[in-house]
What we know:
The protein has 456 residues and is of the alpha/beta class. The chain folds into 4 domains: 4-133, Rossmann fold; 141-311, P-loop containing nucleotide triphosphate hydrolases (Rossmann fold, 3-Layer(aba) Sandwich); 317-390, Helicase, Ruva Protein, domain 3; 396-446, Arc Repressor Mutant, subunit A (Orthogonal Bundle), CATH 1.10.10.60. It is built from 20 helices and 16 strands. The strands form 5 sheets. A 5-stranded parallel beta sheet has the order 2-1-3-4-5, with helices on both faces.
Amino acid sequence: MLEKKVLVVDDDSLMKDFLKEALGRSDYSVDLASTGEEALEKIKDKDYDVILSDIRMPSMGGMELLEATKEYLPDAEVIMMTAYGTVENAVEAMKLGAFDYVMKPFSADAIEMKLKRAFEQMRLKKENKSLHQALENTYSFGNIVGKSPQMQKIFESVKAVADSKATVLITGESGTGKELIATAIHYNSSRKDGPFVKVNCAALPEGLVETQLFGHERGAFTGAIRKSRGRFELADGGTLLLDEVSEISPGLQAKLLRVLQEREFERLGSEETIQVDVRIISTSNQNLKERMEKGKFREDLFYRLNVIPIHIAPLRERKEDIPVLVEHFLNKYNLENRRSIEGISQKVYEMFMEYHWPGNVRELENCIERAVVTSKGKVLTLRDLPKEIAFGKADFASETIGVGCSIHEAEKKLILKTLELQGGNRTKAAEILEISTRTLRNKLQEYGLKEAGDDQ
């Protein structure tokens, strides 16, 4: 249990003795000071959680001590003790940052209640600070992993635009990390203390997108039983992420354009105009310029969204990022699952570099997470991978089985190749081939390869 450190400051020796005894019984660590100057010297040498100070003291009073405390111990809470005639001073002290005040004379229970609330306030502040720091660490630039020229260019773009107000359009295939880039932009901007609101335009039924974005009044439509604020209102002072913005209907595109231009809108069913300060980041896995040229996306809206374009290349075009991504995900999922996987085998590395990764970074991450959780060894091998990756190139069979090859020979090559890719593991190979281990064993005997593989 952490020590609860309290400094009592009062020129009344009876009051100090009373508080020392009362708070000591409740397991508080209590130090005493008779003047503001003495208290300040103690504050400079020791970290106190709560300062319990009288307002009226000779020389340095409680108000001056409050200001000094906020300079040396900004996280400490200050409770002012006051007599009836100085209540106004106590209220003024709270405006200057004091946590609370207590009227003299007071009971031990009364002061303990104040202290309990002060320590709860400190706990909440620390928790909030910790969560905020965790968010910043999670979405820091250091967590956007990649050493390829394409990713280095993105790092430079993100750092350059993060603190601007310009709209950003992030494009790339599904699974490339568009949302991660958007989140990093927000949490590295001056808006990081404001809300970060996401809306997946592709996941919402067309009839609900408008009310999700702009909100509605009670009775605006059937089922609108109460007023609801939209995502633009919720994101005021922060950032709004329009995920898969290409899915917005042409009619709604016009309303979105107006918000971007005028920074104002009306809820459904209301004539009241609402003004907002929101930074827009959009993502799309489609080519918006092509959709614009086909008349499926407004040209004026495209140029409003595309002030800062960031394109994330698919993983197959930047395979030099695979080793650092693998290391990153191994560390992440080792920590989450209390595992100690040391790395991947050379065969796995070769397969990773050969595979075309249709699901991009998300597919690689899912593959590593699954392997870390299920692997029985210290190094990930082919047997730990999903079969579509363990097979390597999807068309490997066409490279080894030529025209004119007999069915018997083709079957033999397929079985032996699968067994090789599974590191000789008959059980895993049989599972991939969708045959029993007994059938596989019989086939190997038929090929005169009785000792091939193992039965792990």
